[in-house]
Specification:
The chain is mainly alpha-helical. It has helices spanning 3-7, 14-29, 35-51, 56-61, 65-76, 81-100, 129-137, 144-159, 163-167, 197-209, 233-247, 254-264, 286-291; strands at 174-175, 180-184, 190-194. The chain has two domains: 3-120, DNA polymerase, domain 1 (Orthogonal Bundle); 129-291, hpI Integrase, Chain A (Orthogonal Bundle).
Length: 299
């Protein structure tokens, strides 16, 4: 039976549900991982556990390095490198958890092979300025989706955010008066970043013209469907992928924009958040400014 056969649409035994929930709790409480990372690891853990022979407790007690390696090889067949790397990272974390809780006979993390990335060897690790602009300007700003996607892409490119960080952004996180933005990063880390002029302008246009009016405090929302829902990190990745297609680029992850930003900013040019190192942002129109106040309708 293949990985897809065992992991797609079939009834998942209750022991798997319980174990996955315990694993997720461990990741959040003990390791302090972000909710999106916990969700991703949990999804991969479930697929592996469902793939194992039944009953689950016997399969775990008898788990061998060969079976682990076999799963990885089978999973990676036909998948792209990024998907495979995400899976092996999650699987190593699951195996450490299973060993820590005494469910497997020994540490099997060494049985998880590294994922070869030779298929991406010919691609640049960073994008040129022209390529970044092509990603951004390919959005159709005559549509609500295009205005939203452009604001999101400008933020990813100019601030170097992770997809989960962009998806987690809330209206009250944008301090228009001081020109700063609050970012919730990995491991529950919170930091304030300067709000560049280009990011502020793109955000203000989205908030005041096309963002749906609703009770949600999330900045980026779905356009279709009612009620509007906050975008997930997966949805942000899909927006980046569609932008790559429009720009004629290979499908790239948002992390490539992070690498591009980092390589383009010499240490001497990094903003100093401790000083007033940002240009004051012009105050947004009343609709956007009011959106950050509790009790006001979203713009």
């Amino acid at each position: 039976m293949t990985v897809e056969d065992r992991g797609s649409g079939q009834f998942v035994p209750e022991p798997v549900d319980a174990l996955v929930e315990e694993f997720r709790g461990f990741l959040g409480a003990e390791r302090g991982l972000a909710s999106e990372t916990v969700r991703c690891y949990g999804t991969h853990a479930r697929a592996f556990l469902v793939w194992l022979p039944k009953p689950l407790d016997v399969a775990l007690a008898d788990l061998s390095a060969g079976l682990v390696t076999g799963y990885v090889v089978e999973y990676c067949r036909g998948r792209n490198t990024e998907s495979a790397k995400a899976m092996v990272t999650a699987l190593r974390s699951l195996l450490r958890f299973l060993h820590l809780t005494g469910r497997v006979p020994g540490s099997l993390t060494g049985a998880v092979p590294a994922v070869a990335s030779w298929r991406l060897a010919g691609l640049p690790r960073t994008l040129s300025g022209g390529q970044v602009e092509a990603l951004i300007e390919g959005c159709d700003t005559d549509t609500a989706v295009g205005v939203r996607d452009r604001a999101l892409l400008v933020m990813l490119a100019r601030l170097g955010l992770r997809t989960a960080e962009a998806a987690a952004l809330r209206l009250e996180d944008v301090d228009w008066r001081s020109g700063q933005i609050l970012i919730r990063g990995k491991g529950s880390r919170v930091e304030r970043l300067p709000l560049p002029q280009a990011v502020g302008e793109a955000l203000a246009e989205y908030l005041t013209t096309t963002r749906p009016r609703c009770a949600s405090r999330s900045v980026f929302l779905t356009v279709r469907g009612r009620p509007p829902r906050p975008l997930t990190a997966m949805a942000v990745r899909q927006i980046v992928a569609r932008a790559c297609t429009r720009a004629g680029l290979p499908r790239l992850g948002a992390h490539r924009l992070r690498h591009t930003l980092a390589s383009d900013l010499p240490v001497t040019h990094l903003p100093d958040v401790s000083r007033s190192g940002t240009r004051p942002m012009p105050r947004p129109p009343p609709a956007a400014a009011g959106a950050a106040r509790p009790g006001c309708p979203c713009p």
